[in-house]
Design a protein that fits this description.
This protein has seven helices and seven strands; from the N terminus they run βαβαβαβαβαβαβα. The protein is α/β, with parallel strands linked by helices. It has a single domain, classed as Spore Coat Polysaccharide Biosynthesis Protein SpsA, Chain A. α6 packs parallel to α7. The protein is globular. The N and C termini lie far apart (about 40 Å).
Length: about 250
């Protein structure tokens, strides 16, 4: 049963050259949520034609040039707010996430209103790239340093965001590291971060379509982590302590 409309939830899907999986993912998402926003991040394959074939069943944001996942998320969040949604479930279009897990996010939200629900993958899943496992453990470690919060998977793109609690999107970086920024910003603002277990599928290496550039993306994430650690000392952690003290006082 689709109850996402009554909860004012949409699904937000950034996509870049995933024509091989895009139609299947959108069709499966529509079984669980009738409100779907797909951001065409400058696709050069047949993705635009695939999206057009859904007609008015989905909303498409298209700006013609590839600008990165962070930029795509920013535009998608803006569109979701314009359409009046309170929550957005983000999901990747490459087929690694299971749309069938969407009800798990809605159930978790019912138990934890206004929380940011974070999908947690099994990092020992078959065909999981070793670089992904290392990058996630690396990110988890620095996230704990920056926020004082333990999360089992800080790299997943399958999440439910309370739109009113998003940090200032104008400062959001344009690439993969934006998802880490969103988590850190939410933690500093006092938003509860609730992990839930999700399924994940990784095809064999020769079948995988990935836009992750190991050297450059890892370098940017490292630079971001350095900046966030400094910012955590002067702003993030003091803000959390102040909010916690106020909450305990009340």
């Amino acid at each position: 049963m689709n109850d996402s409309k009554t909860s004012n939830i949409c699904v937000l899907m950034p996509t870049y050259n995933n024509a091989g999986t895009l139609r299947d993912v959108v069709e499966r998402v529509l079984r669980f949520c009738v409100d779907v926003i797909v951001v065409n991040d400058g696709c050069t394959d047949t993705s635009a034609e695939i999206l057009a074939s859904f007609g008015e069943n989905i909303a498409v944001v298209d700006y013609g040039k590839n600008c990165g996942k962070g930029y795509a998320l920013k535009q998608g969040f803006k569109k979701a707010k314009e359409l009046g949604f309170d929550y957005a479930i983000t999901i990747d279009s490459d087929g690694q996430h299971f749309p069938e897990d969407i009800p798990l996010f809605i159930k978790a939200l019912e138990q934890h209103p206004n929380a940011l629900i974070v999908g947690s993958r099994n990092l020992n899943e078959e065909n999981m790239p070793e670089k992904n496992t290392f990058a996630n453990k690396f990110s988890n470690f620095w996230f704990k340093i920056q926020t004082g919060v333990n999360l089992p998977d800080t790299q997943t793109g399958f999440r439910l965001y309370p739109l009113k609690n998003l940090p200032n999107l104008s400062f959001l970086t344009s690439r993969y590291e934006a998802e880490l920024e969103l988590l850190v910003g939410a933690a500093w603002r006092g938003t509860d971060l609730i992990p839930i277990k999700i399924n994940v599928f990784y095809p064999k290496a020769e079948e995988r379509v990935s836009h992750f550039r190991p050297f450059w993306d890892f370098l940017r994430i490292s630079v971001l982590n350095t900046f966030l650690c400094v910012l955590a000392v002067v702003y993030g952690l003091p803000s959390r302590l102040i909010r916690r003290a106020r909450r305990n006082h009340d």
